[in-house]
């Protein structure tokens, strides 16, 4: 046999029943959902910053990081809405290596998907109930939405998933802002078609059921740069890129036109320190054009406690074991600068 079935996983309903969000937590999430909805629809002119580790690899370090975000958020809450990145799945380009806390709560031990589901929920709940910050995650596996649908306030569909019909259809059933990244090719039309699909009702098979969705009017674009046929990174956050995307956006008649700029990945050529410069250029372009200001609603930043990345064997607290991240000192300074430039 090609498949060796190891054990049956608990259902989303079972996991949610074992680890329920408190009424206090539900109210925190409701308020955050409303704040993000207002940003995407244009009701609020606050600037959205989705910031945090490339991969949430250690609960205590991630919670330490989020506690720091909480203190900054309180100081800049009138201008900036912070959403912590708690990315619990780590897509690997070649399918090998560490795949995230959802697979390995301990990166140095064997995968344990049941323990991973518990770890995801526990970490996301702590972010809400202890620190008041509902989080963002990438929806790498659509069937896992049910395990966290009551916890996440922002969802990203990745560059390698955005062309997949199952991801598009599932995103049409989300009730929170959902960013559709441009594919690794950098093709805007693929991304916009994904947004169109996510914004419209869908009828399809999901988790063993025939389902209908109502459409997600909060689906929007995330620009993360692209890679050309020679493997060279090509950024797409510049003034001219945004203006071109704006024209394509309005021609398609999509609801709530909105763009989030991912300051890392192919936009930075994975040079994590460049994120500071890129974010400032995005904010400068917003100051030059009222149209860009209305369209570009925020940025994504990969950031952790310590700058750079490490190998698993190094055991440096708060340092990424996947892609390199901006360190906390530079991140905190940048958050205050964002507030000033807004």
Can you describe this structure?
Helices cover 39% and strands 15% of the residues. It is α/β, with parallel strands linked by helices and 342 residues long. It has a domain of 234 residues: Alpha-Beta Barrel (TIM Barrel), CATH 3.20.20. The longest helix has 19 residues. The radius of gyration is 19 Å and the shape is globular. It starts with 11 loop residues before the first helix and ends with a helix.
Name the descriptors:
two-stranded antiparallel ribbon; alpha/beta; TIM Barrel; eight-stranded parallel β-sheet; 342 residues; 11 helices
What's this entry about, in short?
The chain has helices spanning 12-18, 23-41, 59-76, 113-129, 145-148, 165-171, 188-199, 239-251, 274-288, 290-295, 328-341; strands at residues 47-52, 80-84, 136-138, 154-157, 178-181, 203-206, 209-212, 219-223, 226-227, 233-234, 259-262, 296-302. It has 342 residues and is of the alpha/beta class.
Instruction: Please name the fourth-level CATH homologous superfamily of the domain at 12-152 and 230-243 and 263-341.
Output: Aldolase class I
User: Helical content, roughly?
Assistant: 25-40%
SSE order, as H and E?
HHEHEHEHEHEHEEEEEHEHHEH
Count of DSSP-assigned helices: 11
**Spatial strand arrangement across the major sheet:** 2-1-12-11-8-5-4-3
């Amino acid at each position: 046999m090609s498949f060796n079935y190891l054990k049956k996983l608990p259902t989303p309903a079972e996991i949610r029943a074992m680890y329920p969000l408190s009424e206090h937590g539900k109210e925190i999430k409701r308020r955050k959902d409303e704040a993000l909805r207002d940003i995407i629809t244009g009701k609020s002119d606050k600037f959205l910053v989705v910031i945090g580790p490339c991969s949430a690899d250690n609960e205590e370090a991630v919670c330490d990081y989020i506690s720091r975000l909480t203190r900054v958020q309180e100081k800049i809450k009138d201008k900036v809405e912070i959403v912590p990145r708690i990315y619990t799945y780590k897509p690997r380009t070649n399918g090998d290596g560490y795949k995230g806390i959802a697979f390995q709560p301990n990166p140095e031990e064997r995968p344990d998907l049941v323990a991973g589901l518990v770890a995801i929920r526990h970490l996301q709940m702590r972010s809400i109930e202890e620190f008041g910050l509902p989080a963002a995650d990438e929806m790498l596996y659509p069937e896992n939405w049910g395990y966290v649908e009551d916890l996440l306030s922002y969802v990203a569909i990745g560059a390698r998933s955005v062309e997949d019909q199952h991801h598009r259809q599932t995103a049409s059933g989300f009730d929170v802002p959902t960013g559709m990244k441009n594919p690794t090719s950098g093709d805007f039309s693929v991304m916009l078609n994904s947004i169109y699909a996510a914004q419209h009702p869908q009828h399809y098979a999901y988790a063993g059921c025939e389902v209908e969705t109502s459409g997600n009017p909060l689906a929007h674009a995330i620009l993360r740069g692209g890679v050309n046929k020679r493997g060279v990174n090509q950024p797409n956050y510049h003034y001219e890129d945004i203006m071109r995307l704006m024209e394509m956006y309005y021609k398609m008649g999509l609801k709530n036109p909105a763009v989030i700029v991912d300051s890392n990945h192919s936009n930075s050529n994975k040079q994590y320190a460049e994120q500071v410069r890129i974010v400032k250029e995005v904010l400068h372009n917003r100051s030059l054009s009222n149209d860009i200001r209305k369209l570009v609603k925020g940025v994504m930043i990969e950031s952790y406690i310590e700058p750079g990345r490490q190998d698993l064997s190094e055991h440096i607290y708060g340092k990424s074991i996947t892609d390199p991240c901006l360190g906390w000192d530079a991140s905190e300074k940048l958050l205050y600068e964002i507030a000033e430039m807004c």
